[in-house]
Each structure stands twice: as structure tokens, then as C-alpha cells.
Amino acid sequence: MSLPIATKPALRRFHQARWDEPIVFELDAPGERGVLPPQVEPGVREVVGDVLADLPGSLRRPSAPALPRIGQARVLRHYLRLSQENLGADLNVDVGQGTCTMKYAPKVNDQLVADPGLRDVHPLQGEESVQGALEILWRTEQALKAISGMDRVSLHSTGGSSAIWTNVAMIRAYHASRGEAEQRDEVITTIFSHPSNAAAAAVAGYKVITIHPDADGYPDLDALRAALSERTAAIMVTNPEDTGIYNPRIVEWVEAAHAVGALASYDQANANGILGITRARDAGFDVCHFNLHKTFGTPHGSGGPGAGANGVAEHMAPFLPGPMAERDGDRFRLAAGGELSIGAVSAFYGVIPTIAKAYAWIAALGAPGLRAVAETAVLNNNYLMSKILAIPGASAPYATGRRRVEQVRYSWQELYEDTGITSEEIGVRAADYGTHYWTSHHPYVVPQPFTLEPTESYSRAELDEYAAILAQVAHEARTDPEMVRTAPHNQTVHHTHHDDLDDPERWAVTWRGYLCKYPDAPQHRRP
Amino acid sequence: MTTSFVHPYLPNSAPEVRAEMLAAVGAESVEEFYADIPAALRLTGDLDLPEPLVAEADLSRHVRGILGKNRTRLSFLGAGTYHHHVPAVVDEVIGRSEFLTAYAGEPYEDHGRFQALFEYASLLAELLEVEVVNVPTYDSLQATATALSMAVRATGRTRILVVSDVRADVLSKVEDFIRPYATLEHVPTVDGIADVGAVTARLGDDVAAVWVSTPSATGAVETAMTQLAEATHAVGGLLVAQTDPIGLGVLAPPAAQGADITCGDIQSLGIHAWFGGGHAGFVGVADDPRLVMEMPHRLFGLASTSVEGEYGFGDVAWDRTAFAHREEGKEWVGTAAALWGIAAGVYLALMGPQGMVELGETLLARTAYARRVLTALPGVSEADGAVHLREFVLHLPRPAAEVVEELRAKEIEPGVVLGERELLVCVTEMTTKDHIDLLARELSAVLGTDTRTPVLEEVAR
């Protein structure tokens, strides 16, 4: 073979890095050090003597913790190899994790926020020395007030589910303040709302009622009306739902809740497709929340840190956590929560690096940009839907013939019936082509589900590539099902056995736990 | 398309691309996609936001301009957020795109994330002497609220005794969290630590948990952990110990002294202060299904693969979680603080056993030194005689808020005001002898005292 080089195949020949890296404990090498801490100065030792010898016997750790001893460069190599064995959103067309809004997180924001003036300031410094941090909090709140239409926005919540908790805690405090805490002991949600709405409500002490969709896949208003009563504390619903369907009767839902004295809580985790299009307050909601790490373009951090923003109407503001940043002329200050505040929901003022990145993201786009984000995300979604529905065996249950907003929950039921290949198996094989794929929250109301959310971040060519990967895997399911069933083939590790993970006699959640249960397990020697 | 806004974050924003994509799906306009949104709910006009800073250089100038208004100071502030050294390798690893931008991939394409978090849990488990540690939750507030809730569920009981001085923010969160199923009863401390006699007198077979905080909100290290554990276990309750792992290179871990659940924050382990926004919580227990099955968190476990000698990973006991069973799961699980967990893992791998021992000694020594030097000032005394790690409370002869205000004018943050004349002072390995001596001199000046005491003469030199 010689130049010119032949055409590439239609799909990229991906292979994930495979370093076969040991567990960090197996890198132990006596005498090596990774980093040295500052030592006790002679002048200090002169005054205080031997502090370890002076410890009461019961307080003294008898021997050093059994951490590995590893030189600095080897620690770095270990973790860089692990990082290469991880498929970050920056490296793939990450549209397969529907509901997660895996959009591009701009690099400039990471750089800006790493400023020592933000990274190294303490939350209890005098306000005059942290005016920049307080201004970021205040500006972010103003922007999210505009985007949601709500009267106040708290940034204390530390993730989406954390924000759902803050919402339900405020709801509980509201009813308690009116002497209705005991009477109102139920929360209503929908099956296509994020599971944490149901779970957080249960933690708050509520009985949870879950509404299933009507025949067309829309949230069932009649079922809601039948469930509402003077016992209802709140409806807590996601909209657009995880199916990508916007509830067209959302105002009737809110009005029906209000009619029985209940509050309405709006999970805006899927708000990316409606930025600048419609707002929580306009639908009458009392409280709502956004996930800053989803809609507002901050990196997802392998599962956090994220951040949640809780928007409230004026009558719910007294229940907000405190303190919150306020502007006083050209100065910014912290105002403590009031008597009715639910108190602290997190340490201090929220996840500052995430909040600051979200602020920068909003500042770069402004009103026209946010609207373009929403419209582009929705266009991308409907474009991808047309590609996916062209794959034999794929379908989009519910709302037949209707458009979707931010994402679609699809089904491989037909392909499964034809081939016996499940949605999970499709996902594992799809990863062989260098991508992510996710099925659905549980329970699987949609059979053999998968959920795609293109966001605004991927080009048409990239969306085409993702659709081509799924088409290829579906084709393999029909022509070479063994190839799909025995996947992965191009990953860091091979088919993993899951039986040990559910058995208390056999599971190993830490290396220490593993060696306790399997004292004869071979340990690999470095390098 | 209703708007034309070409932006680097929006590859399909060019009008001609949009037109082609619309044509491909047979739509006249994006308006068709919003058909389900009632007209009355549609926003008319633009959101009320400042003009976009579309040029990256303009955005940078704007954000840097705001952040430039912050100033770092010589700080003796703690109370939950601590200024420890963050090794360069930690920031290098968590800045990697692969970790920074990943989310919730499966154990195949995200093998690295699973291994890094399994290793984090394993490294922390060695420090804590437990066999099970969660993928991080939000912070110590949530970790403590969950740990106590686990005890309530595991015992089926409703009373919780608070036997240490606990931080106000943690207490606030716990109170609101456990409200539906348990009550808190405070047993006042004596000389900074638990009053074992008073605790024992309050124990009964309706006590779910005894909550001990070590170091406490005042930095006092609990010395009676073993007695508290014995007394709690005698009535069938569980000892829940909230701690900061930073001192455990030299201090006995709570689990080794009988604690059933250990919980707390890992911000000290390689995570910057971030204005209080760099927190992550842990919960650690022995490998006992009675407690493990009450944990709401992700737990990443080791698994074999079809190739010999290959480490695979997966979720342990997934059926516990709200992801599996919504409101029937244990509490909830969601995006929390995984990247900070990876950071803490890298930190512990770098520090190693000797690093944690040396750091523990430095912290204890600097704390003891600061106590000696500062209480040598006339009129300044200590709140208690307990062993302290990092933090301690000074009684001042003047209102603490005034003292703080005057020292801030000298760009020193001397501590956190706890009471009218009480100041919570914190030192770490970043606080040198010179820093402590400087604080002593400036505090002395503010208090109007002279420095003619033996220790302070040394300081003055």
C-alpha cells in the first residue's frame, strides 16, 4: 500500500485506552513520597514540646494509616492513565445521556474561575474583601430571576436533587407556617418527572402519589384532579418531562393544585429547550429549580460538583435558605435568612466554582444567545429524532406525530422483539464506537428505552455520526447478534460480571474490604 | 428560525445550516417544535439580561474585573472551610477534560472514573478504618444528616443525643432533615468534650444514635469515644462520629474506638476553599449489610471480567437507591461531588502514610503553639482545656466583633466571632510560626496590652 491513503470507513475505528493499570495500593513502594507537608518549626517545637507524646493514649493512632507509598510522578501517571480510560464529554458526541444536558462547557470559564481570588478566599472573610464573589452571586441571581421570572433565586443547593430537596423543605415550612403541616401529607408527581422529586418528598415525610401519562403520553390532568385534595402539600413535576414532551395543560395543573391549597413546584432540569421561550413564573409556579451543571453549561465533574438554583415567588421568599447576597448601592453584602427560613441546606453559599462558571456562560450568551441555545437544541433534537426513527426497530412512543422539545425517550421494543437484543446491550456495543448511551430512569415505563438529548452543542455532522452508530448497532443486532451480546470489544475492560455486586457476602466496596473478604487475592506488583 | 445569533458555542447557529436542518425534518420554523406550549405562556420579547459578551476576550475582561475585587488575607478562619495545601498534581488530575467533563457513563467507557472513585473510597477507608465509603455526597451537612437518618432507620428508634459542640450550619441542616422521624436532644459538653456521665444518664432503649463531633465545632478532640461507644451499644444504639479526616494520620479514627458510622467532609483533603463552595461529604461504615443497605449513595465495587487479572467495576446494591425505586429507595441520590472525591483520592495517594502522620503532627503542634502564644496575652484565656486540632476558642477582654474589625483593617482575619467575647481561631499547615507571631503582636496591639511575657518576648524577637 502506498499514498494516497484509502477512504476511511463510515464509522470511526475507536478503541478506548487500555493501560491495564493496577489498583493504587498495588503501587506501594516503601520509601517513596508523593508530596511533603510543612514540618514543625524548631521555634514551635521549643515551645510546645512533643505534641504526639503528649496525646492521651486513647487518642493516639497506634500506627500510620495503611496508605500506599508512591512517588509523585508515578501518582500522576496512574491518574492520567485512569483519565484516559474515561470518556469525558469533551471527547465524544455526548448526546446519549438524555435528561443530563451534556452540552459544551466552555474552557474559558474553567480558566476564569480558577482565579486565586475566588479559589482561595474563605466564606467568612469580611465582606469588603470578597466583593467580587458576592457580586457573582448577586449577578447570577439577577440573571436567573429574569430567566425563570421568579422573584428571588437562591444558589445554595448543591445539585439538582439537592435543589429538589430545598423545594420540598420550603413547601413543608410554608404549610407549617399556616398550621397545615399535619393535614397536608401528600405530594403528587408524575412518572416522567425525575425520581428525586418522589424520593425527596418521601424523605420530607410525604406520602407520594405518582401520576402516569394518558394514552397520548401527556401528563393526565384527570388523574391529577382525582388525586388532589386538602391533603395535598404540593405537586412536584418536571416539564418538559423526560420524554421530551411539554405538558400543554401545565397551567391547569398549577391551577388545580392551587385550588386545593397546594403549592406547585417546577423541576426545570430539562429547561434547556425553553430558555427565553417560556418561564416557570408565567405558568404560575410557586417554586422551581434549575441544574446549573446541565442547562447553564458547567462541566459535570464525573458526577458533580453541580449546583442547583431555587427560584421562588414572593410569598415563598421567607422560607429560602440564607444568607443571600444583596446589593446596597455599589456594595454587596450578605443578608441572613429570616425567621421562617429553612436554615442551611449546604455549607455556606453554594457551589461557588459552578455558580461562577454558570454566570460566565450566561454572560457570554445574553438574551439572544439563550434563545438561540433553546431553539438550536430543539432543532437538533427534532433533527436527530428524524434520523433515529428512520432506523428499523426504533420508535418514539407517545405523542405520535408531535414534535418534542429538548429530548426524546425512544424505544427499541420492536428491535428487541425481532432480535432479543436489549437496550442495555445496544448501549454497551454503541460505546465500542466511542460514545455514551443511556436507557432511562427506572421503572422502564417505555419498554427497551433510550433517551437522547442533543443540546445545542453538536454540529449536524456529529448528530449524523451518532445516528449512524445506532443504525450500525441495530444492524448488527439483526445480522450479527453475538457481536452485540459479547460487547464490549473496544473498551478498557471486557465484559464485567455483576453477580458479586449485589451479594453482601461477596461485594467489595473498598480495597480494604476486598482484602478482608479475599485474603488470598493475588496482588499485582508495580510498575 | 426566529432569531439569528451565530456563536462559537452553537455550531448549528448559522442561518443556512438551520434552514437545511429545518428542511430535513419538514418544518417551516422552530415555532413548530413549540406547538405544545400555550400562546399565553410564551415569552414576548427578550429576557431582561445584559448585552452578551460574545467575544471571549470581552468575557474574560468582564469576569476578571469582578473577581479582581476579591482579596485573600492572612487568615485564621475555619468553621467548616479550611485553608490547606492543595498539591499541584491534584489540580492537574481533576482539571483533565476526561474527568472534568464526564458525567454518568457506564463502567465500560467510564472505567477510569469508576476506578478513581473506588480508589478514593479505598484510601479514605484506610484513614477511617472502615470497609465501606460512599461516592461523595454534597458536604458534611448532608453526610451527617444521612448518617443519623441511617441510624434511625437501622434501629427503628427516634431519639438522637447530640453530645458534642456541633457546628450551627450542620445542626440546622440535620434538624430540618430528620424532622419527620427523629428528635435531637443536646447534652451539654464539659470542658469542650462530651459529658459521659450525663450522656449515659440520658441513654435508653429508645435512642437511635449518639452524635459526637470530633474535632468539635471548637476544634476539641473527643477523648471519651470508647466510653461513649460502650454506653451507646449497651442500649442498642449506634455511635455516629462526625469528623475531619485531616488529623487521622496521628489521631485514632472514630471507628477504631467503637463508632458505628463515621461521617464528615473531605474539603481539607486537597480541595480549595472556593469561598465555602468546595465541599464533599463522606459516610463510612463497616462491611455490615445492616448499615450498608441504609446508605442512599452510589457505592462502586470491584468486579471480575471475562479476562483474567482484569479489574472491572460496577454499582454495589443498586436496589437500595432512589434511581432504582424512586420514593421506595433510601433517601435520594443524584449529582453531588464526585470530582472532589477524585481530588481527595489523589491527595491521599500523594500524602501516603508518612505525609498524613507529619501533617497531623504539624497541625497539632501549630495549634498548641497558637494557643500558648495567644493565651499569654493579658486578658486572653481559653474556653477549655481539651486537646484541640486546628481550632480553639479564645475569650477576649474586648468584644470579639470589634477586634475582628480592627484587625481586618490590617488585612488579617483573626478568626470567627462565636460569642460576644469569643473568637474561634484556626491554624493549619499553611499558617506558619511567623503568621501566628504576627497575629499575637497585632492582637496585643488591638487589645492595648504589652508584650512583656516570656513567650511574647520570644515572639517579639
Summarize the structure.
The complex is a heterodimer of chains A (527) and B (461). By secondary structure, chain A is α/β, with parallel strands linked by helices. Chain A has helices at 42-48, 51-54, 72-84, 107-113, 116-119, 131-148, 160-177, 195-203, 221-227, 250-259, 292-295, 352-388, 413-419, 423-431, 460-479, 481-485, 511-517, and strands at 152-154, 186-190, 207-211, 232-238, 263-267, 287-291, 308-312, 324-328, 331-335, 408-411, 449-452.
CATH C-level class of the domain at 130-364 in chain A: Alpha Beta
Number of domains of chain B: 3
Gross geometry of chain B: globular
Structural class category of chain A: alpha/beta
Strand-residue proportion of chain B: 5-15%
Strands across the major sheet of chain A, in which order?
A: 1-7-6-5-4-2-3
Low-pLDDT runs of 5+ residues of chain A are none
Strands of chain A, count? 11
Distance between the termini of chain B: 74 Å
Q: What percentage of residues of chain A falls in helices of 4 or more residues?
A: 25-40%
Q: What would the CATH topology of the domain at 130-364 in chain A be?
A: Aspartate Aminotransferase, domain 2
Estimate the global geometry of chain A from the Cα principal axes.
Answer: globular
Intertermini distance of chain A: 38 Å
Low-confidence stretches of chain B: none
Instruction: Please identify the oligomeric state.
Output: heterodimer
